[in-house]
């Protein structure tokens, strides 16, 4: 099946052909004809399914007729983060190569109001915005939403997590009642269901895959660690150093503060790493992402909000430094790897009984058990010295890692036998990562137990992790 039967314009079909896409993805196939027929659409789809093109392509077709008026955008796309908004803008540039007269404007926080205002003044066909900045412009009387013919609410469940639902409700009331609405979400929690019932009119429901499925090509593992931050960082370093086939990796933390701490620590330990979190200014976020996309750095430490939905092709490794608090986030995090049939590895560090409970919730959601790695290669550091200056709020010496296995919750204790695992290895446990990590371990020259691993000597690091990284003050 090709794109030609969907009802898209010649200009759009030519742009799609130029990108090399031959076949519409299921969400494109199912949603585009309804969008062109001016129906409301409720799309249940994650990033990576081609959902952006599912609304961008028909919008381009529909916008070929008509003209924009000053301060009155014709269409509005709401995105939860600045990065996602920028990605959607890139899609308009890519698929809109033949639409010379189309005006697309990005209204996001962290950049100048005046430039955005000047764009609004010129008249905008497509306004892509984050909710807060959009409402700021509206409250200043610089933007009228009464001309919006089509509203797209993207990543709605993420908007919910970020507390944007009241803003979304306000915006929905500012755009005309008669507009067409396209609503995309990966999951349908009750609050999202309520919003769809309130603001969508007889929508066509398009669901392309179960929200909570993980990619079959991603090998998933758990790694035990002590609870202390320094112990977790040591575990992470050992996991990264022993990873086989690593091209690049994303390390997820639950809190912005921890993203910054971990980033500094990894830099001090000689890793090629950038950080991405919501407190960084826009230019720093964009620069970090670009460096990672271009493979100028190997690792990216990120928070969920910053990394949600980012289209980073072919990530080989995901590390969950913290077990995500919401089980859904696990699916989103590991969805960064194993894309387009490529194999990937996702390792979650489990430290303590709360983590074990969160893992149990994840396993319930994804309907599969994630095996523990039998051993984490590398000698636990004893004691760990951070190579240069330790941030003030952390201990100067990382505490000794005890020989005792990390504390485990009752729940976990009941479900999981003590190491070594006695049950026959599952298919996943037989899968490459565990075996490869074990092989790597036996190949490694044993390190003297009392030698601090990280003081100055970086010879044990793989070369790709030693690329120089420009340090920002
Ligand atoms: P999205 O879910 O919108 O983030 O898209 C995920 C990735 O799929 C992006 O890199 C798109 O460029 C790509 N993509 C979108 N549509 C197609 C298609 N029909 N065929 C192949 N790749 C596509």
Structure, described:
Helix 12 links the parallel strand 10 and strand 11 (299-303). With 473 residues, the protein is of the alpha/beta class. The radius of gyration is 24 Å and the shape is globular. It contains 18 helices and 15 strands. It folds into 2 domains: 3-207, Rossmann fold; 218-366, P-loop containing nucleotide triphosphate hydrolases (Rossmann fold). Helix 3 (51-62) crosses helix 4 (82-95). The strands form 3 sheets. Strands 3-4-2-5-6-1-7 form a 7-stranded parallel β-sheet, sandwiched between helices. A 6-stranded parallel β-sheet has the order 8-13-12-9-11-10, sandwiched between helices. Strands 14-15 form a two-stranded antiparallel ribbon. It has helices at 10-19, 26-36, 51-62, 82-95, 113-122, 131-139, 156-161, 165-174, 190-199, 229-242, 256-268, 282-293, 304-307, 327-334, 353-366, 410-415, 427-430, 432-443; strands at residues 41-44, 75-78, 104-107, 126-129, 150-153, 180-185, 204-207, 218-224, 249-253, 273-276, 299-303, 317-320, 344-350, 384-385, 397-398. It starts with 9 loop residues before the first helix and ends in a 30-residue tail after the last helix. The model is unreliable at 382-473 (pLDDT under 50). The chain binds adenosine monophosphate (AMP).
Which features would summarize this protein structure in a list?
473 residues; alpha/beta; Rossmann fold; six-stranded parallel beta sheet; disordered C terminus
Q: How many beta-strand elements?
A: 15
Bound molecules: adenosine monophosphate
Q: Tell me the Rg in angstroms.
A: 24 Å
Q: Any guess at the CATH architecture of the largest domain?
A: 3-Layer(aba) Sandwich
């Amino acid at each position: 099946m090709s794109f030609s039967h969907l009802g898209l314009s010649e200009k759009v079909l030519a742009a799609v052909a130029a990108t090399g896409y031959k076949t519409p993805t299921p969400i494109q196939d199912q949603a585009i004809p309804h969008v062109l027929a001016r129906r409301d659409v409720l799309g249940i789809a994650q990033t990576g399914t081609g959902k952006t093109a599912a609304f961008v392509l028909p919008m381009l077709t529909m916008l070929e007729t008509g003209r924009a008026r000053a301060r009155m955008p014709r269409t509005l796309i709401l995105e939860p983060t600045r990065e996602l908004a920028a990605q959607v803008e890139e899609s308009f540039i890519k698929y809109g190569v033949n639409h010379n007269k189309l005006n697309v404007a990005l209204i996001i926080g962290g950049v100048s109001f005046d430039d955005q205002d000047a764009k609004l003044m010129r008249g905008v066909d497509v306004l892509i915005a984050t909710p807060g900045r959009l409402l700021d412009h509206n409250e200043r009387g610089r933007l009228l939403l009464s001309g919006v013919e089509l509203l797209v609410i993207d990543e709605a469940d993420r908007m919910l997590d970020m507390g944007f639902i009241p803003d979304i409700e306000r915006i929905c009331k500012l755009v005309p009642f008669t507009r067409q609405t396209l609503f995309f979400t990966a999951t349908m929690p009750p609050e999202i269901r309520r919003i769809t019932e309130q603001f969508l009119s007889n929508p066509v429901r398009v669901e392309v895959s179960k929200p909570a499925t993980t990619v079959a090509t991603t090998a998933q593992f758990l790694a035990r660690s002590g609870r202390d931050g320094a112990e977790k960082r040591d575990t992470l370093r050992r996991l990264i150093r022993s990873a086989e086939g690593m091209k690049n990796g994303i390390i997820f933390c639950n809190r912005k503060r921890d993203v910054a701490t971990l980033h500094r620590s990894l830099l001090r330990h000689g890793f090629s790493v950038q950080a991405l979190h919501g407190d960084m200014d826009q230019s720093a976020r964009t620069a970090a992402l670009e460096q990672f996309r271009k493979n100028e750095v190997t690792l990216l430490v990120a928070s969920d909000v910053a990394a949600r939905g980012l289209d980073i092709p072919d990530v080989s490794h995901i590390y969950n430094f913290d077990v995500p608090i919401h089980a859904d986030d696990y699916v989103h995090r590991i969805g960064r790897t194993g894309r387009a049939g490529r194999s990937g590895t996702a390792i979650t560090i489990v430290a303590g009984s709360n983590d074990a409970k969160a893992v149990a919730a994840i396993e319930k959601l994804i309907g599969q058990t994630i095996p523990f790695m039998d051993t984490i290669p590398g000698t636990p550091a004893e004691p760990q010295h951070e190579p240069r200056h330790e941030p003030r709020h952390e201990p100067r010496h990382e505490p000794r890692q005890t020989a005792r296995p990390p504390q485990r919750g009752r729940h976990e204790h009941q479900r999981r036998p003590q190491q070594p695992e006695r049950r026959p290895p599952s298919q996943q446990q037989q899968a490459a990562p565990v075996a490869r990590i074990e092989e790597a371990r036996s190949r490694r020259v044993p390190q003297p137990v009392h030698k601090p691993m990280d003081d100055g000597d970086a010879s044990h690091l793989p070369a790709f992790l030693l690329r120089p990284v420009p340090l920002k003050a």
